[in-house]
Amino acid sequence: MQPMVKGNNLVAAFEQLVSHVDALNGIVDSFLMSQMELNAFITTHFHVSPFLGIPNVPSPVVVPAGISTATRQLVQTKASLLANKANLVTYKMNYFNPAGDRYINSRYNHTN
């Protein structure tokens, strides 16, 4: 035998969990933006030549790799973060809303 759950409490707990996942989504997004700034800096980084103090050009290997990485991170990760936010909204509508197809509470049975 298992104990019955109080549906409203369960919904509140899951909504709080969704809120935490949504906040984590924002943390990852902030990290992505910071990482992109660092990648841009490293991609265009150069050294000063020991001969006459003239700046060298950025690395011909790092520049294309940096651009490729930045593009991939922005497109793939940002798109995944946006999809995750949309999935959370759909999840809440399906399971926590009485009109949802998979509403987790009973429409007919109640307990104290």
Chart the SSEs and their pairings.
Blueprint (H helix, E strand, L loop, with lengths): L6 H37 L18 H35 L16
Helix pairs in contact: 1-2
Helix content percent band: 55-70%
The global form is rod-shaped
User: Could you tell me the mean pLDDT?
Assistant: 89
Number of helices: 2
- Please report the distance between the alpha carbons of the first and last residues: 18 Å
Helix-strand pattern = HH
Q: Which regions contain 5 or more consecutive residues with pLDDT less than 50?
A: none
Structural class: mainly alpha
**Which percent range describes the beta-strand content?**
under 5%
Radius of gyration: 24 Å
- Sheet bearing the most strands, described? none
Tally the beta strands.
Answer: 0
Summary keywords:
2 helices; rod-shaped; 112 residues
